Structures are given as C-alpha cells and as structure tokens.
Structure prediction request, 446 residues.
Amino acid sequence: MMKYIWLFAAAAVIILIEVPSLRKRKLRKDLWVFFCLLGLGIVLVIMRFLNLHIPNPVNGLDYMLRPLAEAIFQNLSGR
Amino acid sequence: MLEKGKISHRQLTVLTLLYTIGTSILIVPSIMAVFSKQDGWIACLIGTAANLLTILIYSALAGRYPTLTLAEFSEKILGKWLGKVISLFFLSFIFLLSSFLLRVVGNFMTTHIMPNTPIEITIILFMAVVVYAVRLGIETTARAAEIFLPFVIALFLFLTFFLLPQIRIDRAEPVFENGIKPILLGAFYYFNLQEQVILMMLVPYTNRPEKARSALLAGTLLGSVVIIVSVLLSTLVLGTEFTQRNMYASYTLAKQISVGNFLQRVEAMLAIIWLITIFFKTVVCMYAVTLGTAQTLRLKDPRTLTLPFALLLVFLSLLVYDNIVSFVAFTPKVFSLYATIFMVIIPVGLLGIDALRSSFKQNQSSS
Prediction:
C-alpha cells in the first residue's frame, strides 16, 4: 500500500511543479503531452506493482538482432 | 529556438571528454579482455580511430545545417513525416540508452558500494540529480563540467601513478596471439559503446559551430586516451584472466594500490571519477532526448518533459534487465549492432540523401 501512496505523492508533486506555469502561459499542446506521458508512466508503474507482464523492449531487440550478432561473433572470435 | 543557453567550444570539449570516459572506464577493460584477450588496447586504438572517423561524418552533416539539431534537420532532409519517424526512432535509442546508463549506476552501487540499499533508491536519487541538471540547462551543466574536470584528471593521474610499480610488461605478451580477427571484434564492440552521435544534439548550441568539429575530435581523443590507459593498466597489472572475471575490472585495479602498507583501499576514488563522468553522460543523453522530443512534437518548453520522462526512465531502467546475467548477454553482442544503426547507418544515410538532393537542385538551377 505504501508504494502506491509514494507513487501518487510523486505524481502530485510533479503536477504541482509543472501545471500552474503551463496553464498561465496557455501552452495547451505542451499540457497534453505532459499529461499523456505522466499517465503512461503511472499506468506502467502500477502494472509493475501488480506483477503484470510488461513487454521488455530489450527482448524484442534481442530477438531481432541476435542471429546477426551471433554471426559476427562466430566469424571474428577466431575460434 | 527552444534552448537559449550557449556553450563555448572549450566547454564542448570538456563535455565530450567526460562523455567519452562515461561508462566506459569501468566496463570496457573487462569486455576487451573477454573478446580480445591481452590485445584489448590495440582493439581500443582501432575503435578510437573509427570513432574519430564517424565524428568527421557527423560534423560534415552538422556543417550543412549549423543552427539545427539532428531532430530538426532530419525533417529538412527527408520531409516532414519521414523525418519525424526517423527522429522519433533516433530518440527512442537515446531514451533506451539513458535507461541502460541508469541501470548500470544502480548495478554498480548495489553490487560494490551499498549492497543493502535497494536498487530503486539508488536509481531514483541519481535520476533526481540528473533531472535537476537537465532543468537548469546546458549552459549550467557545461560550467559544472569545467569545475569537475580537474578532479577527474587529478584522481586518474593519482591512480595511474601509484599503479606504475606493479606493471609487468610480459602480461601483454604475446601480441597478436590469435591474429587480427578477435582484435577487430573488440574494436567493433568498443566503437559502439561510445555513442558520440548524441553530441550532435549539442552542436547548434555552441557559440561558434564551425569550431565544433575540432572540439568533438579533441574531447573524444583525450577521453579515449583515459580509457586506453585503463585497459592497458588492467591487462598489465591484473593479467587477462583476472580482468575477464571481474565485471568492473578497473575498480578491482584500484584496489591493488598499496604504497608501503600505508596508502590502501583507494578504489572509492575510481568510483568518484566514474560517478562524475556517468552523471554527465546521462545528463547529455536526457537533455538530448527532452530537447529532441520537444523539437519533433513542436512543443514550446522542453523542461515540461523532464519529470514525466524521469518517471518513465526509472521504470524502464528497472525493466530492461532481469539481472546482471541478462545485461552481460545483451550489452556487447546485441547492443553493438543496435547502436550501429544509429551511429553509422542513419547519419551516413542522411548525409548521402542530403548530398544527392543538393546536387540535384544545383543541376536544375544551372540548366
């Protein structure tokens, strides 16, 4: 439970720091992007707290590049 | 222009120097020993030469658009939509790289310095300092780099000097034992651990962009000298096998210092050097990613993005590796290919397309 409180407290502090000045300067697009990114971050962290499966970008890269990486390694390792 | 700060070309040299030392001083000696054995320092020399060569390509590209960053001129060269796709692809690389850097800090601190502190706390604290620096802007960061540089140089010279008595030249022999191939492999991996292409995001903010090329070359060269010396010292003092077995070989190297049973356990000095340099590398990366995103999405204030990005980066850095084993399996082998896309293929492609387009335009106007 404590970790959720910390997460929402952090999100509240972030909003308090950024949003007033953005509203005063009337930067609507910036405000949109800000809330989208912050929402994405909060959702992902909650998914992590709930131990849900989150696709790892490194695994995708590994899957795509591993065959070529192994070929380079085999040809150059000199064994 | 989004960023109003300006840095001098001397400050760019200092930032490049710290950026090049970056993570490499701690992780490169072990990687070189694994793949190139005792010839790791030759591999580093070849990798440095390749690095300097790519900087010539980058500065040729930046020289065509001296006031624009990579995220902006890719739209100029490829048109609006394809350019945006390429710059977002490029920014995703910098974003992932920043999360790797954060994770490397966390791994090192939890395994070697503060084993009882959770890795999350280390990462969040480090991120907080990085965010603070990014929000203050590039000018402040560059001045901080100038202040920290003498400390880094002095500590490094101190370590090198006190390791000199323990050098045994025969540990570097036989040279070229397995032929040229393992050296080329090591050089390829070394080259891809220096992501100099990201410094292109800073070039438009130097007060004289025409001097940026010499600044980048000088900074990279000096930083590479530091890394080559640490690789060479690891081989000459620890020997190849011992270097291979230690993930952070230069940290173990600093533990070897013992002057008259009096001056001992100075390895924290190496940790200080490394934390300073990786701090500047992370700041440059995060600065590049916030500025680039703001330019691609046409936002007015890149500072807005820093805090949401910080949350995402902390999350991503905890997600990317399950443990240190998956880090070792990924980092040199697969990461090198991934980095090649952004360090060689995209800049060369952009330069080629731009050269074709400008020659085409000239032909049309002359006929």
